[in-house]
Write a structure and sequence with these properties.
By secondary structure, this protein is mainly α. The protein is built from four helices and two strands, in the order ααααββ.
Length: about 80
Amino acid sequence: MFRFDHLIRSDMTMRDIKRHFPQTVAVFETFGFRGICDDCAVEIIARRSGLSSVEVVDALNRAAFERVTEKGEVRYDTNV
């Protein structure tokens, strides 16, 4: 069963997200978030970059949990 309390939230720091979900590093790089911001919450980093924290968190959760099957179906990893 998927646990919603395991999702990435906007109040989490970049460092914690990277540590728990290494597959999100590429998302941070895509948005241009630098390592100097590692101790900042996603919400703060997004706001400073003029981005919606909801969109950033959505992209991070997709990277962390979304899997595409061989048939091209989107599944969510529930084993977290």
